[in-house]
């Protein structure tokens, strides 16, 4: 026989575990933020660092999808209001995040930031509602207008703009100047493997006698061409200018990009950790009460 108390017990146990995990995760992040000193980009050591600076433009600016505003980075979400009997909720129907890299300047130098995998907290956030699936789309007509009559959508768009302050904590590496150069022999072998994957093209390039196979002399030409290309790549890597790059660190370390400063982030994380702890305690109390009633 179905007993709803088992379902309630499962939910209370999930609240216990989820609350404990959330509390420990936020406390761990707060610990890293508090104990990592702010570095200057020009003199920052390689590895896990904390940076503070101002966002600058680089190349062509991005265009936010919902508002068409010029920006450096964007994230948006479109939700549809849906009813099912007495229940109603907002259902996400579309979302996307920019993968454009950012440029941070702290006065001592500049650093490129790869936002992939980061917890991004922008200062600019807009939320509004409308009757179209996309706020800048064409209004439906005819039969489509009848189908969309009475629909409600909620749009959320977040953006980073040039000139905004940015707090960043993540993994810093210096690239260029030969630091990322490959071993020449290893790169030569990689090139040959890549060329062999497209054997018809390899024959077209190096089969001089057109007999459909590569003899010993032709293989020597393949190896020579691969070695020369590997040497050219090595030379380009050596000549490339040095560039600081911030990216996602190893598992367990926070990767945060925020327009709010460290103090504000710490306050939020401590409050969120407290919320997780309270959820854990409530789940533990509910689980204990339900377990007693079941047995």
UniProtKB/TrEMBL annotation:
Localization (cell): Membrane
Broad class of the protein's primary localization: membrane
Membrane-crossing segments per the record: 269-291
The keyword Transferase appears for this protein: yes
Domain of life assignment: Bacteria
Keywords associated with the record: Membrane, Metal-binding, Transferase, Transmembrane, Transmembrane helix, Ubl conjugation pathway, Zinc, Zinc-finger
Pfam families: EF-hand_5 (PF13202), GIDE (PF12483)
Catalytic activity reported: S-ubiquitinyl-[E2 ubiquitin-conjugating enzyme]-L-cysteine + [acceptor protein]-L-lysine = [E2 ubiquitin-conjugating enzyme]-L-cysteine + N(6)-ubiquitinyl-[acceptor protein]-L-lysine
Topological category with respect to the lipid bilayer: Multi-pass membrane protein
This protein's name: RING-type E3 ubiquitin transferase
Organism: Pseudomonas fluvialis
